[in-house]
Amino acid sequence: MKKMIIGLSAAAIAAGVLVGPKVIGDSVESRLAAEISRANNYPGLTVELEDFQKGWFASSAVVKVDFIPPLSKEEAGDFKGIKFQTALEIAHGPFTFQHGLGLNRFSWESHIINTPELEQKLAISEPVYRSEGQVSWFGNISFNEVVPAFEVTEGDVTLQFSGYQSKAWTGSDGFINYDGDIAQIEIGDSDKVVKLDNLDLTLSAELSMDKLMSYELYDGEFQISVGQLADGEVFNVSDITMVTDIDVSPDASKADMQIRYGVGKVEVDEFQVSELGFDISLLNYSSAFNKAYNQTFAKLLDGEPLAEEVINQIALDSLPLLLETKPEFKIDSLRFTLPEGKYDSNMSLKLSDYSLNPELLNDESYWLKKLQLSASSSADKALAKKLAEMVIAEKVKSSGNFTEAEIHKISEQQAEIVLASLTAQGILVHNEQQYTAEFSMEEGKAVLNGNPVPLPAI
Fold first, then answer.
1. Residue 423: helix, strand or coil by DSSP?
2. Continuous segment of H or E residues that includes residue 233
3. Segment (H or E) for 380
4. Which of 25, 27, 64, 140 is the most buried (most CB within 10 A)?
């Protein structure tokens, strides 16, 4: 009896090992066809399966991709679109060997098929793009991508690209994680070279193709950072970052979005600014509006270019969906530091009443009564004087023929007078360390630094 059980178990395992790849191969074929069909829903994108060879343990395919963006003739110019072929090799599970022995549903290797012209232009023999990865039995995905280093010259200008590498994986939380980096891009001629160092892309998102195709919102964070951008002579920009955060509500009806821009230091000739930042938020952004608005535009982009009145009508028709979740727009911080000191400001904009009267949507006074706005700013005393001097200097330059020394003297003399005047008018508040300003508006009434202000005077 025991021998029979062992024999049946061995037979079942053997059947799984031998028959399993055939079943998975069928699944891979149908999945590839579904992904190609789904990709063809993107405006301007055409994907065709030119060849598919299915074996018992592996399959191969050639996929043709044409992308012609939906642009007008003026916008497109000489751009004719992007066309290429991708070769795909797929190993069927339950055991795959492409990246070492693994227990996977399938693994793959793919690469763009280089044209002779492309290889000659970039002076490369390896594929201009390749990727490899696997899908585990638990549905987790891991893969990496490689774009090789190349150098290309057009006339007197040379572009040197150090190559691109990335890795991606899904965790137990269902999030897709992605990390890609470029060590350096260099472009220039014999007179000047611009260099970009340490470009890094990171993504962690609860993302799927279904959500992208249906324009659904998703939780996630996306970041781009650059170590340095410089030409070695005139400008030097360092520590550049852009971060996008999306936090979807538990019922998926809305999301909070934040975009943060930051620069560590900017040096242009003798001018320096540091700690430059711009953080904005959109709270309670409607999922229904996002889907409806983007779906409408996607359909229209398949046809003729959109006229301005058509775009305005789409926005007007979608307005009730947008306001349904009571959105709020905020500038969390607009800030920078000069050698003279720091500047910081913020702003919040929302409606006090989100109900709509369709007959009054084009009436400015209707919206003024609904707007609820608050804003504040502050600048260190020495910085405020410097900013006033810069504004005055530009006006003096445009008003007549003055030498640089004369412009500097006039702007320096008038800066204190201008700041004193603005303070006397109540536009600025001055203390020992800073100049500040606070503004608010609600129900059609405006207040500046605690004092009511007629709106026509703003």
1. helix
2. none
3. strand 371-380
4. 25
Does residue 65 have a pLDDT over 50?
yes
Q: Give pLDDT, residue 37.
A: 85
pLDDT tens sequence across 325-367: 999 999 999 999 999 999 999 999 999 989 888 888 778 888 8
379 pLDDT band (50/70/90 cuts)?
very high
Chain position carrying tokens 């911080």? 333
* Banded model confidence at residue 18, pLDDT cuts 50, 70, 90: very low
Residue 3 pLDDT level (bands cut at 50, 70, 90): very low
C-alpha 140/C-alpha 169 separation (Å) is 7
Q: Which residue type, as a one-letter code, is found at position 325?
A: T
End-to-end CA distance of the chain: 94
Cα 314 → chain centroid = 24
DSSP structural state of residue 98: B
pLDDT digits (tens, 9 = 90+) for 157-178: 999 999 999 999 987 777 889 9
Structure tokens at 439: 């503004």
Q: Which residues pair with 46 in a beta bridge?
A: 66
Q: How many CB atoms lie within 10 A of CB 182?
A: 20
Considering the entire predicted model, what is its pTM? 0.80
* C-beta separation of 276 from 266 below 8 A: yes
Contact 362, 413 (CB under 8 A): no
Instruction: Report the amino acid identity of residue 280.
Output: I
Which residue reads 């920078």 in tokens?
A: 336
Strand-pair partners of 279: 260, 333
Do 179 and 200 form a contact (C-beta atoms < 8 A)? yes
Q: How far is CA 46 from CA 11, 39, 50, 81, 282, in A?
A: 46, 8, 12, 11, 34
Phi-psi region of 232 (alpha: psi -120 to 50; beta: other; left: phi over 0): left
What is the Cα–Cα distance from 71 to 69, expressed in whole angstroms? Answer: 6
Q: If you ran DSSP here, which 8-state letter would residue 342 be given?
A: E
Q: Which helix (H) or strand (E) holds 193?
A: strand 193-205
